[in-house]
Design a protein that fits this description.
The complex is a heterodimer of chains A (474) and B (456). By secondary structure, chain A is an alpha+beta fold. Helix content of chain A is 22%, strand content 40%. In chain A, strand 21 and strand 22 form a beta hairpin. In chain A, helix 2 runs parallel beside helix 3 and helix 4 runs parallel beside helix 6. Chain A is globular and about 70 Å long. The N terminus of chain A is likely disordered. Chain B is an alpha+beta fold and 456 residues long. Chain B has 2 domains: 217 residues, 2-Layer Sandwich (PmbA/TldD fold), CATH 3.30.2290.10; 227 residues, no CATH class. Chain B contains 11 helices and 20 strands. In chain B, helix 4 runs parallel beside helix 5. Classes of the chains: A alpha+beta (474), B alpha+beta (456). Chains A and B meet through strand 2, strand 3, helix 3, helix 4 and strand 5 of A and strand 2, strand 3, helix 2, strand 4 and strand 6 of B. Strand 3 of chain A pairs parallel with strand 2 of chain B.
Chain lengths: 474, 456
């Protein structure tokens, strides 16, 4: 565990400056003011079409300031981190609320030291660019060695470092230093039936040591095998049937089926099917759903959220019973309770809102092989793509990127890609088997209201008794 | 924070950076400046008012050495001269690690004249915050009060932007443009007999006087209330009639498969089909960013070439892919001025303002024509259920039954599935209701036969 480095942070936003800017933001009224100053640097290398196409580096730096007056929020951002730049943004944000409330004093800022759950061992900025790109050529060769049907290999290396300081009129003055590294590979296979794709991706809140933990060439071979397998795929069935979802990436199911519906902003606006259902049995008793921003090294972990509240391990559903929603500052304050550490934003240019972190289903006790063997007919989804939900109706879809028919309790032919559709509250009740093979899935970017943030998800193997498979076969 | 910036200032920044280019390199800079405001109304009050100015620049360098050409790129969210100097150095350094490629190179202006599209309305800068707030509040009120089955409005937003950008390069590109845009959007929640449905409505323009609160509110109400009581359909194959909003999304997917980027990388399912029939003869697909009706209209593409009209599919036959300078060189053809990018990326290729040549029937007449089928009002999960490489197409959908030539009861929680190849060949008619939408495509009612509906 590393202690937050306040040397780094005070360069972004010193305590004295923060106090003066917050005072200015509340000078003409308002109940709450906040400064979020961020520095972000990224590097990406793409390899495609048998060559290193490009190495890209980027940086951005700036601050977002919000002022809350009653229920109204004013927000402005600036790339100018000088005190005069911040003061200008503070006045703009304050003006935008048109605050009429009497005004609030700024509490003395007290630095907090909360350790990030991850400790990057090799900062990517210290790794030579040559090492980052050298690896990509090996990946290409590994993928093509799998099968001569592989016609194209694309892979991408990415790292980014996001350092921020957040200070608010309640006295919070904290920061975080988030280092992330990722790698993905997509292969195209060509056969008689056209082209198919296979993909693998990894991403963790760690440094370059991620490549000591994973063998990228093996990931490439897996992606290639997925693509080649799908050359023999038949159209997926259409209709409602039992669906077994493999460990890991199946977490997307819960992210969509209920995760978004448990975000307090949807709840506050009566725009979630889970509104008013705390204490009720909303899922099969097998289901315990947790959102945990403290999971070390996972894609969605952090020390503090983008409002300065510590990341937490939040149990949302316990043995099928809805225990709590996820909260940010604004929604928690309206309910007179504490934030659950789920206030996140894409960058300093965005307002924070309630977001998931790492969302997962705790282990059950079934043997995953038994779950399949116990399913006479159905579909097994080995790898999921993304998904989408309408929280107000609960209807959601998620994509299957690798799936098989289950016949007589055994995996049979591979299936072509497609979406599955279901209704969150119904699907949660219809989980009738939960495996003991929990794993986290691939890194994801969760989109909400135009903002993307990194999230993780995970699940053991599980079975839903009825989901609608969106294929074309009868 | 100045609301607008002169394009001349951006060009001067570009000139300065290009002036630093050495003899052994080509340099291109994209400079962007944007001022945005966004107001959200909720429960009769302002939920938030955000106001922001962002700026940034991306620098592309092609290093030339002994017949080799290597490309590097870097960007910064700043127009500070010292930072841009470092960014240029980063791009130069990044170029060292790329594979040499003879087809790399910046493009020089060609003989197409830049269109003059009048996309900038001075008046937007004069609109007061109070007027913007009032538009959002009126929108929310109109949705809430328009129908007693509306139980809430999840969001009612007014948003606008004033943006300017410039591209300057050592190959003779020096172009700037600016535009204004604004929109209203509402997401409504309707409830009746314990059933909840949602809908959205919007209005888009280049200045607030072009916005229509009533149309946005009525659409948001209508789209939610007409789904109340929706049931899951039985699985079957039948004709679907796509609403303009949905067909525009489908055109976007099709446009992606025709991108030169996908072609040269062996990821376009139409790569070998140039000159062949890929769609019914009813289909003429045109990408025309010079049409000022398109919200994504523009005078220059992402490499600074004059935009132009490109016919991609003519009477069902594949005529052209979209190309930028690099993909064009790879395919031994010319750029179609279809480079797209923000300041934080190198140019890709894509359709900029895609539309079909409209047909002659209205949506109602198309319902009569088909007799039995499903009107699809919205699709979701396009990113997870459509594979533009294999052509597999499967999306969540909601809509209405078409029975006896008219729309009937609502449907929900089903998928429609086919392949992109089949969908294009099965288009049975194109509506006359062409509407430009806030995406890179126009929509029109589209009748497609033999699509699989998956439900119960």
């Amino acid at each position: 565990m590393t202690k937050t480095d306040f040397g780094l942070h005070s360069q972004l936003l010193s305590r004295d400056t923060a106090e003066r800017v917050l005072a200015a933001a509340l000078q003409r009224g308002g109940d709450f003011a906040e400064i979020f100053a961020e520095d972000r640097r990224s590097c990406a290398a793409t390899y495609d079409d048998s060559k290193i196409e490009e190495l890209t580096s980027g940086r951005s730096r700036g601050a977002g300031i919000r002022v809350i007056s009653g229920d109204a929020t004013g927000f402005a951002h600036t790339a100018d981190l000088s005190e005069s730049g911040l003061l200008t943004a503070a006045i703009t944000a304050a003006d935008a609320t048109r605050g009429t409330s009497s005004g609030t004093k700024v509490a003395a800022l007290s630095p907090q030291n909360i350790a990030n759950p991850s400790t990057p061992l090799i900062l990517p900025e210290t790794v030579e660019k040559a090492r980052k790109v050298e690896m990509l050529a090996r990946v290409d060769a590994a993928a093509r060695s799998v099968d001569n049907h592989i016609s194209q290999v694309a892979c991408r290396y990415g790292d980014n470092r996001r350092t921020f300081v957040v200070a608010n009129s309640r006295g919070i003055y904290g920061g975080d230093d988030q280092v992330k590294s990722s790698f993905s590979v997509t292969c195209v296979a060509v056969g008689d039936g056209g082209m198919q794709t296979g993909r693998e991706s990894i991403g963790h809140t760690v440094g370059f040591e991620i490549f000591e933990r994973y063998d990228v060439e093996e990931l490439a071979r897996q992606a290639a095998r997925r693509a080649v397998t799908k050359l023999k795929a038949r159209p997926a069935p259409s209709g409602t049937m039992p669906v077994v979802i493999g460990k890991g990436g199946g977490g997307v199911l819960f992210h969509e089926a209920c995760g978004h519906g448990l975000e307090a902003d949807h709840i506050a606006k009566n725009a979630s099917v889970f509104t008013g259902r705390i204490g009720e049995l909303v899922a099969s008793p097998l289901v315990t759903l947790i959102d945990d921003g403290t999971m070390p090294d996972e894609w969605g972990c952090y020390a503090i959220d983008d409002e300065g509240n510590p990341a937490r391990h939040n149990v949302l559903i316990q043995d099928g019973v809805l225990v709590d929603y996820m909260w940010d500052h604004l929604r928690a304050e309206q309910q007179g309770r504490d934030s659950s550490g789920n206030g996140r934003r894409q960058s300093y240019q965005h307002l924070p809102m309630v977001r998931m972190t790492n969302t997962y289903i705790a282990n059950g006790d079934a043997n995953p092989n038994d779950i399949i063997a116990d399913t006479p007919e159905g579909v097994y989804v080995a790898q999921l793509g993304g998904g989408q939900v309408n929280p107000a109706t609960g209807d959601f879809v998620f994509g299957m990127t690798e799936a098989y028919i289950i016949r007589n309790g055994e995996l049979a032919e591979p299936l072509r890609e497609g979406n599955l559709i279901g209704n969150g509250p119904e699907v949660l009740q219809n989980i009738d088997a939960l495996g003991n093979d929990f794993a986290m899935g691939s890194p994801g970017t969760c989109g909400k209201d135009g903002q993307g943030v990194p999230v993780g998800d995970g699940t053991p193997t599980l079975r839903v008794t009825a989901l609608t498979v969106g294929g074309t076969a009868n | 924070m100045s609301a607008s910036v002169s394009t001349e200032e951006l060009l001067e920044i570009g000139d300065r950076i290009i002036g630093w280019a050495g003899d052994d390199e080509e340099v291109e800079i994209v400079v962007a400046h944007e001022h945005e405001t966004e107001v959200r109304a909720y429960d009769g009050e302002v939920e938030y008012f955000a106001s922001a100015t962002s700026r940034g620049a991306g620098i592309r360098v092609i290093k030339l050495a002994g017949g080799e050409r290597r490309q590097g790129f870097a960007y910064a969210g700043s127009l500070d001269e010292n930072i841009l100097a470092e960014t240029l150095d980063d791009a130069r350094d990044n170029a060292k690690f790329a594979t040499s490629d003879e087809h790399l190179g910046l493009i020089a202006p060609d003989d197409v004249t830049y269109p003059s599209l009048d996309l900038f309305k001075d008046s937007l800068a004069e609109v007061s915050p109070e007027e913007k707030i009032e538009l959002a509040l009126r929108l929310e009120r109109s949705v809430c009060e328009g129908d007693q089955r509306i139980i809430g409005v999840e969001s009612a937003d007014y948003a606008d932007s004033i943006s300017a950008s410039a591209i300057v390069s050592t190959s003779g590109i020096r172009v700037a443009e600016c535009d204004t845009s604004c929109h209203l959007a509402a997401f409504s929640i309707a409830n009746a007999d314990d059933d909840t449905q949602t809908g959205f409505g919007f209005s888009v323009g280049r200045e607030p006087s072009e916005l229509d609160v009533d149309i946005a509110a009525q659409d948001a109400i209508h789209r939610a209330t007409r789904l109340l009581g929706a049931k899951k359909p039985h699985s079957q194959r039948m004709a679907v009639l796509l609403d303009p909003w949905v067909s525009a999304q489908l055109l976007g997917v099709v446009g992606g498969t025709l991108s030169g980027d996908a072609v040269i990388r062996g990821r376009s399912l139409f790569a070998d089909r140039l000159g062949e029939q890929i769609a019914t003869e009813l289909i003429t697909l045109i990408d025309d960013p010079t049409n000022p009706e398109a919200f994504t209209a523009g005078e220059a593409d992402g490499e600074g070439l004059a935009t132009r009209q490109n016919v991609l599919v003519e009477s069902g036959y594949l005529k052209s892919f979209t190309h930028n300078s690099y993909t064009a060189r790879r395919c031994a053809t010319s750029s179609t001025a279809s480079a797209v990018r923000g300041f934080s990326s190198t140019p890709g290729t894509a359709c900029l303002a895609l539309s079909l040549l409209p047909g002659s029937l209205s949506q109602e007449e198309l319902c009569q024509k088909v007799g039995e089928g499903v009107l699809v009002q919205s699709l979701f999960g396009l990113h997870s259920g459509v594979n533009p490489v294999s052509g597999d197409f499967s999306c969540g959908a909601e809509g209405l039954v078409i029975r006896d030539g008219a729309t009937a009861e609502p449907l929900k929680e089903f998928t429609i599935a086919s392949t992109i190849q089949k969908l294009l060949l099965n288009i049975a008619d194109v509506g006359n209701d062409l509407t430009w939408l806030p995406m890179r495509a126009a929509g029109m009612s589209l009748l497609i036969e033999d699509v699989t509906i998956s439900g119960d």
